[in-house]
């Protein structure tokens, strides 16, 4: 989905839709000296999205309101990544921030779908447009990387290889659309918690670094069938997520029994993605997974979609 480019007239508001991300390939290497883990990943933006709206407040300050997922529990002050993003753009432009940000959230919180990073990317774009800040793509990406490893991808959307700690992107020209059933659970997993569990399991000799993204990239570039894609999905964090939340195993098995081509933990979890053959299969699969119980909510999504800066 593409963000709007309305000029920042006084009183005007700017809204941008920012998609959730999934990692059809998530290879996790060893912890680096800075504490981050080397990543070799393929990101894809999917149609599940948050909407970030920015309007002038009329006085200095950054104010955040939230509706939807996480409303009432997520911080609205400086601890919110969108707040940090607004502050960063103001600092870059050398202006006093003056903005009311509204986050309408559909992306599950702490679910492995980069909801917080999506809001930060949306706030960067919306505030830059609202305040008419002249900023190039490279500079915007640099600011995004300072906010979090997934934020640069959330700006761009589409499909991309992520390296470094996930912030270095190489676009992939994916030819096709793939359909997913997204099943959330009533638990959350914090990203650092899941990385720590990966390290702990590795010390016990469980799991290894899946560094080669080439087979999956070729599949996307050649418009592979969902059947072929199903065999290439990899997540080095999956064992850690299941170890932290063992109930994920039965959710995954249940979806496979209902006919999913693959069950794949999204990022650091605990959201589970089920790959479907096509949209018709996805609709039927979502219904069967819902009826079976065990998921908090079940959504349909397709990818890739564009990000707000595309
Ligand atoms: O980059 P971001 O702030 O989203 O990362 C949150 C946390 O996840 C980091 O503080 C780190 O503990 C962990 N992380 C990691 N390796 C990465 C990305 C994140 O260990 N590549």
UniProtKB/TrEMBL annotation:
Keyword ATP-binding assigned: yes
Domain GHMP kinase C-terminal positions: 232-289
GO molecular function: 4-(cytidine 5'-diphospho)-2-C-methyl-D-erythritol kinase activity
GHMP kinase N-terminal domain sequence ranges: 80-158
Pathway in which the depicted protein is active: Isoprenoid biosynthesis; isopentenyl diphosphate biosynthesis via DXP pathway; isopentenyl diphosphate from 1-deoxy-D-xylulose 5-phosphate: step 3/6
InterPro entries to which the protein is assigned, alphabetical: GHMP_kinase_C_dom (IPR013750), GHMP_kinase_C_sf (IPR036554), GHMP_kinase_N_dom (IPR006204), IspE (IPR004424), Ribosomal_Su5_D2-typ_SF (IPR020568), Ribsml_uS5_D2-typ_fold_subgr (IPR014721)
Binding-site positions, ATP: 108-118
Active site: 21, 150
ATP-binding among keywords: yes
Superkingdom of origin organism: Bacteria
Keyword list, A-Z: ATP-binding, Isoprene biosynthesis, Kinase, Nucleotide-binding, Transferase
EC number annotated for this UniProt entry: 2.7.1.148
Reaction(s) catalysed by this chain's protein: 4-CDP-2-C-methyl-D-erythritol + ATP = 4-CDP-2-C-methyl-D-erythritol 2-phosphate + ADP + H(+)
Family designation: Belongs to the GHMP kinase family. IspE subfamily.
Cross-referenced HAMAP family: IspE
Role of this protein: Catalyzes the phosphorylation of the position 2 hydroxy group of 4-diphosphocytidyl-2C-methyl-D-erythritol.
Name of the protein described by the UniProt record: 4-diphosphocytidyl-2-C-methyl-D-erythritol kinase
Gene name tied to this protein: ispE
């Amino acid at each position: 989905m593409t963000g709007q480019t309305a000029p920042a007239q006084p009183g005007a508001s700017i809204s941008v839709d920012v998609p959730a991300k999934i990692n059809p390939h998530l290879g996790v290497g060893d912890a680096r000296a800075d504490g981050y883990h080397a990543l070799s990943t393929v990101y894809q933006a999917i149609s599940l999205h948050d909407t970030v709206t920015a309007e002038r407040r009329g006085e200095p300050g950054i104010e955040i309101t939230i509706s939807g997922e996480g409303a009432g529990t997520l911080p609205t002050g400086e601890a919110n990544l969108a707040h940090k993003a607004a502050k960063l753009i103001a600092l870059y432009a050398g202006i006093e921030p003056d903005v009311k940000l509204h986050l309408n959230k559909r992306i599950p919180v702490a679910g492995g779908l980069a909801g917080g990073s999506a809001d930060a990317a949306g706030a960067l774009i919306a505030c830059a447009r609202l305040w008419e800040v002249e900023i190039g793509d490279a500079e915007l990406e640099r600011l995004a990387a300072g906010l979090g490893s997934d934020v640069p991808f959330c700006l761009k959307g589409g499909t991309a290889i992520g390296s470094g700690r996930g912030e270095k992107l190489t676009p992939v020209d994916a030819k096709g659309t793939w359909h997913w059933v997204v099943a959330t659970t009533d638990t959350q997993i914090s990203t650092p918690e899941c990385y720590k569990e990966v390290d702990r399991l590795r010390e016990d000799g469980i799991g290894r670094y899946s560094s080669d993204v080439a087979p999956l990239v070729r599949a996307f570039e050649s418009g592979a069938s969902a059947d072929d894609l199903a065999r290439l999905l990899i997540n080095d964090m999956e064992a850690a997520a299941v170890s932290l939340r063992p109930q994920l195993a039965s959710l995954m098995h249940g979806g496979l029994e209902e006919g999913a081509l693959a069950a794949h933990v999204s990022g650091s979890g605990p959201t589970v993605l089920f790959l479907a053959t096509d949209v018709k299969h996805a609709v039927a699969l979502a219904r069967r997974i819902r009826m079976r119980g065990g998921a908090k909510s079940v959504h349909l999504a397709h990818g890739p979609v564009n990000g707000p800066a595309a």
